Amino acid sequence: MGRAFRGSTARLTAVLCAAEVLGMLGNATFPALIPEFRALWGLSNTEAGWISGVYYAGYVAAVPLLVSLTDRRDARLIYLLSTALGGLAALGFALFAEGVWSAVAFRLAGGVGLAGTYMVGLKLLADRIEGPRQSRAVAFYTAHFGIGVALSILAAGEVTALAGWRWAFGAAALGSLMALLLVWRRVAPGGRPAQVPEAGHPLDLRPVFANRAAFAYVLGYAAHVWELFGTRTWIVAFTAFAYGLQPAGGLPPLAPTQVATVVLLLGLPATILGNEAAVRFGRRRTVAAIMLASALLSCGLGFLAGLPAWAVVIVLVIHHMIVMGDSSALTAGAVANARPGRRGATMAMHALFGFGAGVLSPLAFGVVLDIAGGAEQTLAWGLAFALLALGPLALGLPVLARMGRWPDATTGGGS
Questions:
Q1: How is residue 247 annotated by DSSP?
Q2: Helix (H) / strand (E) containing 18
Q3: How confident is the model over 367-402, as pLDDT tens digits?
Q4: How far apart are alpha carbons 143 and 146 in whole angstroms?
């Protein structure tokens, strides 16, 4: 570890978490500004969902190659090049985006950049930390993904209010530049994967399918991301809709983007506490309880838009904290159950399935909004949020139920 990093384990974790947050300033810039772009470009909800989801399509297309290669190559170069691509994509959006297709192109490129930073950064961390510290380091790193999304929403709202949406994307490009410089200066070249890779092509993911315990966490993560990314994409627009239902003088002092920032930031303690609960009480049991609770709340969330604004905000906070409770537990479970020499491939599969769900859920949400009467109807929002509950109910919980039939390296058994 000393060759690959200047400093301690805690310092490595801090550097990669800081770079993760900076590099993600463009992550939610478009979703945070959906109401503005709907008015500016005349977008339907389906088109807005497509532009949001295509970001993760770029991620899904690139992540199997980029993360699997880290089983054979030091991840630092991949990380630096991908961070540069993410910054260029944000800058291109700021300068040249004029409608649906140009927005799709730049968001797609930004997703490819994310593919080479988020999971590759996690691989950098996991390769250099073993034992009990690994689970906690993974929990802190994955929790900072939520912080990155939250600050991306906040920056989008505040910069747009001051200088316009193009400057918001310009600020995201600057964040990527700062992340690149941080990793370039603080993470030294020359590191090697901690495990000897197995023979075979790096893109051969069949051994990951055969590892049932790890693959169960992969599928569980897909169910989690389906619900999480659908909520994150539409939270600002939903808050704006709820505000529109309030009587005169009934609005809180926070703008919708500021509400979303607070909601998402509160996911950090929930993520870490959820992982600690999983270590103490059993990973499968803890994740199942969290998924059931989040799905039940999703079924009713959209129908609550007419409550007083403060009550809507509280419900959004509670819902997001529950949803985030199993995020690190699922990722740590996949990492811990990966076969030696296949950690990168396992993490690639984890990202492929998870973020694949993240491509579809924002789009499906927007389609339901349009079919059910549009974003001005409470029924449409209720049905759209209920759709998100299908992830944990139809996939996550059934997979976890079957998981009790085989050993789990994170618990010593199926619990």
A1: P
A2: helix 9-23
A3: 999 999 999 999 999 999 999 999 999 999 999 888
A4: 6
